[in-house]
Amino acid sequence: MRQRLISRRRLLQGSLAATAAIPLLNADWARGDESTAPKRLVVFYTPNGTLESQWMPRGTETDFTLSPLLQPLEPFKAKLLPLRGINMDVVVNSNIGSEHARGIGGLLTGRALLRGNFRSFNSSNAGWSSGISLDQHLANTLKPSTLFRTLELGVQVRDPEVRGRICYGGPDQPIPPREDPYDTFEQLFAAATPGQSSADAIDRLRAQRRTVFDILGEEIAEVRPRIGAEDRIKLDAHMQSIRGIEERLAGSNGGAATTGCAGPALGQRIDLLDDANMPAIGKLQMDMAAAALACDLTRIVTIQWSYAESEHLYPWLDLRGNHHAISHQWDTEGKAQYSKIHTWFAEQLAYLLGKLDSYAEGDRTLLDNTVVLWVTEISESTQHALTNMPFLLAGSAGGVFRTGRFVDYLANGGKARQHNDLLLTIANAMGTNDTTFGDPAFCSGTLPSLT
């Protein structure tokens, strides 16, 4: 009988090259380089800043109380890293665009705006951002072999100009978000599983993969007696890695990753232009994001709610004025109305964190293996400030970030840090070797006290 041999390429790829077109499994796993869950990034953008006095936590690094506007996140306090003392100096002194435009253009790029003719607040000279955004940089650098390199989702963004873009492929290269959840569903799950319902198709894909695992196991068992002791150790380690992947795909840990790895139910189509439907649209997009991450269709997601300087209406909160107008009401009633909006956005983030935390991945969850960055384009809304930004991290990126702490860089007379350094810290946590990000004049290195 002819002996079966496994080539080096076949060994490294573990026969999983046959599944290259299947979106749920990354090629890095296929090479047996990692049996743990991959790291993910989610950016959660909400507009029009905050009320600093109502946003910043109170207390010390390890003994702190979440502020009124952050109370909806209390169930996830142990997995949070609220930050104080992060400035966006890269756009503070620019004379191009309003603070809203400058802020959103520099949020993920760490660079100032180019000159253009977009209107924003009292300015009419704003252009697009002058650099690549963090999400696209990570995709270019890490080259995830998921079906979608990145996934840009929007919730009634509407504005096609600089105020409505947070993602950039490079200077002057804005990337529009997907605002239609029905189209997003088709793109994600129909592309992954053409001609089948998502649940049935994903079951089929798992069956195909199990078949591949079985074939590989048979081949390794046949070859193992004929190789040296050192190679046998390497082969056993490789097979153990493969078994770990198989268990995760089969859901042997009893978590939600098996039953939850399917496209969400969309229900009846709703009017995407009606402001009153923002909660329903947002929930669909968040469900889509969680499912895409759980199914490994992508590892990098941005979720953008409305646009900078948003004039969205919030009838479900019993508010009559638009968001931007309310953000500039300095009286007690205006601040109470604004707090309603911000608290509601915190509730939406809590919903997303709960979805991510419901997927078990070994002894962690999808949230644990993700870093979620909550951002907005300005800080104190009444002042259009771009310093002491209300930025918050959730999840530890697979144990990199030490969560459950309030990191206050201004405590005890401390010095403010730059948001470019925060972007660099996240890039390194995701696996890059970058030493700078964005405008190097405003990036001095990774932030201390986070990892």
Automatic annotation (TrEMBL):
Pfam entry (one): HXXSHH
ATP-binding among keywords: no
Coiled coil: none
Signal sequence residues: 1-20
This protein's UniProt keywords: Signal
Protein name per Swiss-Prot or TrEMBL: Secreted protein
